[in-house]
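Sharing a chain and its predicted structure for anyone who wants a worked example. Both blocks are below, sequence first, tokens second.
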Amino acid sequence: MSERRLVMIGNGMAGLACLDAALQRDSTWRTTVLGEEPHPGYNRILLSTLLAGECDRGEAITHDADWYEKRGVELRAGVRAVAIDRARRVVHDEAGGETPYDRLILATGSEAFVPPMEGTRRRGVHVFRTLDDVEAILAQCRRARRAVVIGGGLLGLEAARGIAKRKVDTTVVHLMPWLMEQQLDAAGGALLRDAIQRLGIRVLLERKTVRLDGPTAGSPDACVERVILEGGESIDADLVVIAVGIRPRVELAKQAGLEVRRGVIVDDYMRTSDPAIFAVGECTEHRGRTYGLVAPLYEQGTTLAHALHEDFSKPYEGSTVYAKLKVAGVNLLSIGRFAAEREPQSAAQALRVEDPGTGLYRKVVLDQGRVVGAILFGAVEDGPRLVNLVMQQVKVGDEAERRALLLGSLAAGTATASAEADEMARVAAIDTSESICGCMGVSKGALVAAIERGATTLSELKKATRASSSCGSCAGTCQMLIRLVTGEAAGARGPKLLCDCVPHPKEQLRVAIRNQKLRKVSEVLQIYGNGVGCERCHPALAFLVEEVWQGAHEEQRNSRFINDRVHANIQKDGTFSVVPRMRGGVTSPQELRRIADVAEKYAVPMVKITGGQRVDLLGVRKEELPAIWRDLGMPSGHAYSKAVRTVKTCVGSDFCRFGVGDSTSLGVKLEETTERLHTPHKVKMGVTGCPRNCAEVTIKDIGILAIQGGWEVYVGGAAGMRVRKADLLARVEAPEEALRVSHLFLQYYRENAEYMERSYDFVERLGITRVKAETVDALPETQAALLERFQRSRELAAEPWSTESEKPATANQFSPLPPVQVVPELAGTFVRVARLDDVPVGEGRAVTVGSTAVALFRIDEKTVRATQARCPHAGGPLADGIVSGGRVTCPLHAWRVDLSTGEASSPAGNCIGVATYEVEVRGAEIFLRAP
């Protein structure tokens, strides 16, 4: 059997998806792709994101050179096909080449429609359709001051938002009475206009553009300077984007004599009027309809991939169209026949709920009792459910079902356990053949298979399937699916609870703490917990109370881990490390001399340079800490705390010959403006002066990278137990704006992350689309409120070393209690070991009694317990552990010791015994039976 030749004209998303599926099924084709654009395959859905500076060009590429090579596909990029010889089965290209075929796929897509008006060829006038279009618009944005986008549909609004993000004054001119009239009714359009204008974009409706003017009348290639509307109204503009619609590219098909109306006519198996030629995507017309959205085109591609192999088991019968606006800060989903009640002789009914004050609009359309369309604006959590109901034409019965259909998650509130259980059930019930990611055409079955192969995080699932890599609206469903497949869902029926001791979600506790003015951890435990707590919830509540009250709370030091109590990092032998702050890694000879003098004076066992460009003094005894801080005269580097740690920098433009930005100064400023803030987990940052990335900013919690003409801000990077490349949060021009963006994200993370959740898990859990929408793309008043809370917290955060080197927060915080001499004849009798006030309530203190090291623990006002001083597991200093519920947790490896019985258990359940000692409290004195 001779080798079969498969040729595809076009290198777009629909064609490549089809080709991918076809070659997975049979790789014996000799395949050639003629692509008019000089690029490998890329994701057109990300063009608006690329224009807005929210991703880079590399992220938009879906099929790199390696993809074509591995599959034996010859990509002839930048080669335009000009004719099809059906008799000889040959494709002619503009370079004079001939490419023979046995089967031909037309995937020529569509082109931007440009209205017939004067001035469209002027410089500064663009369409918004291809990667090259985006590059041209971006180049114009660098010098433009005022932009006009002609067209208020999906593409027009996404283009407008992208241009506005580039700090260009932007106006949208739309011919129709409301925006996105193809996807919205008048009520939804009105809300959308308000939302778009709140983003700083001017909207002019019912305006017809008649010409584009410039400085030289009659010169079509001169620069554009203004847009002239019908009636003589004029708008100044040095950048114009025309986004009024698309039309299928059918010239080749027409010339070849194929049946063409608006698009190339295809049957249910994507065959044209020539059985050797198939067509897929935006160039096709099926049952009288053309499609311009991605999901239907992927459905067509699946059918075509089967038909190429004479498998006609999956006919394409048309698609339910749904569209999501990819403008951060605006949540909008339109599904199916959303205006069916207005169709001629229609008996359809529209169910509506609207709250203009909050920007909420929801409409569900029923035709003969079946769900046929919907509009969701402001709250789109029920979108996937409604898409499936429309696709399946589900019949709705009584009043309760209609109300549940309309309100969905609005009725119960999305934070309830029942709502999450319902969502779990919905995801579990989705058929494996149904599409989860409409943008990339990924089915539930494909996602489940990828998860079972080991893609158990959202980023891994994106890499394996490309699901959620475009608009991101399916991220929640993908994460829910991960939980279902991995079994995590079995033990998680609702929002994550803080702890078994405090069985409430963080957000609920935050509201209660604020509304009930709870300013101490003990108050929260008494009202919302078991009154005792444990080593997990005590530090979490300490952070939450501080975060809510921004310093105006009552600090209970016994709820803090030992590192936060003594402001140093405990080591495996019970000593501590001291890391003074060197902002941006910059120091001076004077500071270095002081560090050297301190190291010699206190015989510090090790002095080491850290990975964060600091100096670490290791092996310091607890009692030496205050004196060392005083002698250093430097602020704490918070290397011990769940807090902002360091900002790593390169030398930047001051010294490096490749540097394009002053990373050192910006790094120092970033550290100055964020230091001392406590966070849900440690935060490491970096600023680098050029894309060589010497400060490794793309694996930091927050990283800032200098580029030509500005800065990029990345968030959610990791380089510890696992490696994760950070997500691009924003591109900005000025270093001050990079600082502002970093502050926005840091405060957003402080307020919304779970305690002990690193930023990379947080960003992955929420998805970068949501993070952007609620930070850099949020309404101005939302951003201002975040920054105000950030600034207040920063102002109230005290520098601990200078404060507590002179006045410790609690008695004997650093010094062990005086040793107690015990003569032989007193062995077995009670001896006085300390005053009651020497041991604060809820804390432990070490004391040597005779030759025995003992840890004293004050349970409440009158109760004291005593054990051996060291944990038998690894010698951890038990007196430094968190005391709660009659137990102490070792600060090294979290072994728990019952202070009454001495039973010690590990987190894994292993048990050993700890020596306990009998204690009596006599008035204000503590007595212990001498060992």
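Comments welcome. Residues 735-752 form the longest helix (18 residues).
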